[in-house]
């Protein structure tokens, strides 16, 4: 490689690093503003100003919708609600569709792993460092269009209704996916396997619903309720300031324990169909720490109060239903951020 090419490559990497640092700084600032009552109110007002007509429509339609349905309830102060198979309709069909898709995707993943010895050393090293070796988002837009039962379930009264009641308006359905978690060799954890809160919007609802039974070895979803999260985050920030440590959006188990937060941790084990609807913008949580020989498979649904990265849904299918149409119509907007087959859950 020529000197000019090397210099050009160095400049490119420097620009990328600077851009990532700026992005992280903005994210950290947003986190800190969002966690104060005044900052939260300011950001909430900014959301309304950005699209007042849509905001009013979502709140108005939501009032009538939740009044005529009886969805399960998320406790506002705690920021979560538990789910169970008896609260869903046609869940057997959802499980069957999801498991069939999983079998197909797993076969492709197994082929990929089997081909590892044939790759060059450089490509093997790159593969071994990939986050999606241990946390796979399996579905793409084609999978969803071929399996409409999954999207119908995400828009059912029990599921969409629970998110709508908690958020105070018909939300944007952003993601419908299957998350496949595997053991990670070694003692270190990925960033997603440390406690954190998610960056999307002021508030959101994510569902993690078990597609197979989950015990301790499957690495149960682990979280801290919203009210305790507020206290713990404030205490950790104060502790870091005393220790002269910089702010970071990831929190070690030791830090949680140091401020008396260990007793507030909830680990979500249970049978197929069990799970949680949780505001991951308000509740500290971490990804699955699966033990060797096990895996965890969850149906993953995301509902936001702001348009975020989204799957592309069959909007025409819901055109005559004002509630469902509001939930999905953004996914065909010209500037919508689409989710492709390779994009992974943060």
Architecture overview:
The protein has 346 residues and is α+β, with helices and mostly antiparallel strands. Helices cover 43% and strands 13% of the residues. The protein contains eleven helices and nine strands. The two termini are 36 Å apart. 34% of the residues are buried.
Features:
single chain, 346 residues, alpha+beta, Jelly Rolls, 3-stranded antiparallel β-sheet, 11 helices, 9 strands, 13% strand
Report the radius of gyration as a whole number of Å: 21 Å
Strand content: 5-15%
- For this structure, what is the CATH homologous superfamily? q2cbj1_9rhob like domain
Low-confidence stretches: none
Average pLDDT, all residues: 85
CATH class membership: Mainly Beta
Instruction: Quote the CATH topology.
Output: Jelly Rolls
Give the terminus-to-terminus CA distance.
36 Å
- What is the spatial order of strands in the main beta sheet? 1-7-4-9-3-2
Number of domains: 1
Biggest beta sheet attributes: 6 strands, antiparallel
| CATH architecture type | Sandwich
Question: Count of DSSP helices?
Answer: 11
List the helices and strands and how they pair.
Blueprint: H1 3-34, H2 37-50, H3 52-68, E1 80-83, H4 91-114, H5 121-128, E2 135-137, H6 141-146, H7 148-154, H8 157-167, E3 172-181, E4 204-210, E5 221-223, H9 226-243, H10 253-258, E6 266-268, E7 275-278, E8 285-286, E9 296-304, H11 322-328
Antiparallel strand pairs: 1-7, 2-3, 3-9, 4-7, 4-9, 5-6, 5-8
Could you provide a short overview of the structure?
Helix content is 43%, strand content 13%. The protein has 11 helices and 9 strands.
């Amino acid at each position: 490689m020529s000197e000019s090419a090397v210099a050009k490559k160095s400049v490119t990497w420097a620009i990328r690093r600077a851009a990532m640092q700026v992005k992280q700084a903005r994210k950290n600032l947003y986190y800190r503003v969002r966690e104060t009552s005044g900052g939260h109110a300011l950001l909430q007002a900014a959301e309304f100003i950005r699209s007042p007509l849509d905001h009013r429509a979502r709140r108005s339609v939501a009032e009538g919708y939740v009044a005529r349905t009886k969805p399960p309830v998320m406790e506002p102060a705690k920021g979560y609600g538990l789910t169970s198979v008896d609260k869903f309709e046609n869940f057997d069909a959802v499980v069957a569709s999801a498991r069939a898709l999983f079998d197909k995707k797993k076969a492709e993943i197994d082929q990929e792993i089997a081909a590892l010895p044939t790759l060059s050393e450089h490509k093997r090293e790159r593969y071994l460092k990939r986050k999606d070796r241990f946390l796979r988002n399996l579905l793409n837009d084609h999978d969803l269009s071929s399996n409409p039962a999954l999207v119908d379930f995400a828009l059912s009264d029990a599921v969409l209704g629970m998110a709508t009641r908690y958020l105070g308006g018909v939300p944007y359905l952003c993601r419908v996916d299957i998350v496949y978690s595997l053991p990670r060799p070694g003692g270190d954890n990925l960033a997603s396997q440390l406690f954190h809160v998610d960056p999307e919007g002021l508030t959101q609802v994510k569902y993690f619903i078990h597609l197979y039974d989950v015990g301790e070895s499957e690495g149960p979803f682990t979280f801290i309720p919203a009210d305790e999260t507020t206290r713990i985050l404030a205490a950790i920030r104060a502790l870091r300031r005393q220790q002269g440590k910089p702010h970071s959006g990831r929190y070690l188990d030791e830090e949680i324990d140091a401020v008396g937060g260990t007793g507030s941790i909830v680990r979500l084990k249970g049978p197929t169909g069990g799970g949680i609807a949780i505001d991951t913008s308000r509740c500290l949580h971490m990804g699955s720490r699966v033990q060797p020989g096990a895996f965890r498979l969850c149906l993953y649904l995301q509902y936001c109060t702001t348009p975020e990265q989204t799957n592309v849904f069959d909007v025409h299918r819901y055109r005559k239903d004002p509630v469902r149409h509001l939930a999905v119509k953004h996914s065909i907007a010209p500037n919508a951020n689409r989710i492709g087959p390779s994009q992974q859950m943060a």
